[in-house]
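Consortium newsletter contribution from the modelling node. Members have asked for a concrete example of what our holo predictions look like. Here is one, prepared for the zinc ion complex that several groups have been discussing at recent meetings.
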Amino acid sequence: MEALRDGDCWFLRLDKDEDLFSTLEEWAAKEGLKSGHMSGIGALKDCELGFYHLADKHYDRKVFPNEAELLSLDGNLSFLDGKPFFHIHTVLGDEEFRAYGGHLFSAKVAVTCEINFRPFNADIKRTPNEEIGLNLLSFCKAGH
Ligand code: ZN
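And here is the predicted structure:
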């Protein structure tokens, strides 16, 4: 991966066969990033997507091993259990030009992945929410 900082924003290029999440997490930790928003395009493979069922609080998961156009990646950075945590949703496209997508659990770069990242200054953590069954964004400031 190569990262270019331009003012407050970053431009990232992830390379073929890199693991999307571990590469981003290592970069965020190295740069001391606290939170932010990201978007991206490129091509991914070995994507595990999820659809969340609130009624029984579980994800249906499905792995798509084939190379896919990364039509849209949208996500954010926060902290979970003291570590950088990227929450990413994606729309992928197959060779028949069909689109599919969901919550992204894991993926590798198939060709390249081009990401814009805009950091925020706030320490944003995720905390468990019993009703929803997920770790939701928590904007509570320390000491308040
Ligand atoms: Zn999600």
